[in-house]
Amino acid sequence: MRNSLNILFIFPLVLVGCKLSKQLKLEPESFLKWYSSEENSFKSSDTLNGICYSISAYPQEVSIAICAMNKCEPKQTLETDLKNKSQLNTYLLELTNLNSKGDLFSLGASKGMSRNEQLIYLNNDIKYALKAVTESGDTLVCVSVIYEPLLANSFRLMIDFESSKSVSIDRIIYADRLINNSLIEFQFKNNNRSNFPHLNLTNYE
After folding, report:
1. Rounded Cα–Cα distance for residues 30 and 152 (Å)
2. Once rounded to an integer, what is the mean pLDDT over residues 125-152?
3. With 80 as the cut, is the pLDDT of residue 111 above it?
4. 73-81 long-range CB contacts below 8 Å, 24 or more apart?
5. Pick from 166, 161, 193, 169: nearest CA to 40
6. Nearest to 108 by CA among 182, 180, 184, 178
7. To the nearest whole number, what is the mean pLDDT of the chain?
8. Which residues does 97 contact at the CB level (< 8 Å), separation at least 6?
9. Domains of the chain, residue spans
């Protein structure tokens, strides 16, 4: 009788556990939809002097989900990458001039910088104008910047911060020397990692 009661008690827990595990594991397409939802706060924006600054967390899982959907990587490679690195230490910073006639490079030129000097700044020196602050108050330095032009009035940068698996980034501070030398702060929700789901590659071939 006692064994029967134990089975009756454990069986519902197993069902609940299975249900929770399914909720926490998303297929690549569902994962990208979840990530892009505004309520999950992986994006922070601000507007200053006609320039819109938008920064998005870009975890390794996003790249893996895109590869999985496009079938561009073997499943084993994706699973290895996902296991080895899943930290939110890579971000996309996009700058857009809200004035349709404005060119971000012309604004930089008004500061006395040639186009070549601006490109050097965007690909290298800009990392000294970026820093991240963890929830515990520690400062992380930017270690890599990749510049990508979009339109005449916008460009974006992929930036990486020095971090470890034991920290999470609370906010990012950018001292924009190229455009207007202003200090811009991007704040992220504290829970944007606690509810981060697992990417399910079980059915990916």
Report:
1. 33
2. 87
3. no
4. 75/201, 75/204, 75/205, 78/201, 78/204, 79/201
5. 193
6. 178
7. 78
8. 50, 51, 52, 103, 104, 107, 153, 154
9. 24-188
Q: For residue 90, count other CB atoms closer than 10 A to its CB.
A: 20
Joined tokens for residue 42: 């992986």
- Tokens linked to 130: 């970026």
Residues in the chain: 205
Cβ atoms of 61 and 86 within 8 Å: the answer is: yes
